[in-house]
Amino acid sequence: MKSPTSPHRFWDVQNRWLFGGVAVVRALDGTSTRNFRRRGRSEGLLTDDIVDNIPLFSAIELAATAASVGTSYWMHRTGHHQLERWVSYIHIGVGAFGDARNYALKSIPPRPTVP
């Protein structure tokens, strides 16, 4: 069995699972953010206009996934095979925490309109 620091093919089974996990947490980030926007919450990192623009927000989530895979590839090419895996581990962990937090946020009731 190879150690995590030994050279390996970039698209090996472990990396495919890790990149799949990154894609899943990014997709859940998109759905959880859209969910809390529908419940009256505001996005903290992006403007609400960006989040409410579904094609743009989807492109940002896709770009974040690609950036994670690209960073892993850069680590792989420079011989940092253990760090290559940790990029995905951290991305999945932080993403899953954020997704759970988004879904757990309480709804903000709409303000009554005064005629």
Structural commentary:
The protein has 115 residues and is mainly α. The chain has one domain (13-104). It contains four helices and no strands. Helix 1 (13-38) packs antiparallel against helix 3, helix 1 (13-38) packs parallel to helix 4 (81-104) and helix 3 runs antiparallel to helix 4. The protein starts with 12 loop residues before the first helix and ends in an 11-residue tail after the last helix. The mean pLDDT is 92.
Features:
115 residues, 69% helix, mainly alpha
Largest sheet: none
Coarse morphology: elongated
Tell me how many strands there are. 0
Q: Give the helices and strands as they follow along the chain.
A: HHHH
Number of domains: 1
Share in β-strands = under 5%
Radius of gyration: 18 Å
Number of helices: 4
- Percent helix, as a range, is 55-70%
First CA to last CA: what distance? 72 Å
Mean pLDDT: 92
Low-confidence stretches: none
Structural class of the helices, strands and pairings? Answer: mainly alpha
Record the SSE blueprint:
Layout: H1 13-38, H2 48-52, H3 54-77, H4 81-104
Give a summary of the structure in a few sentences:
By secondary structure, the protein is an all-alpha fold.
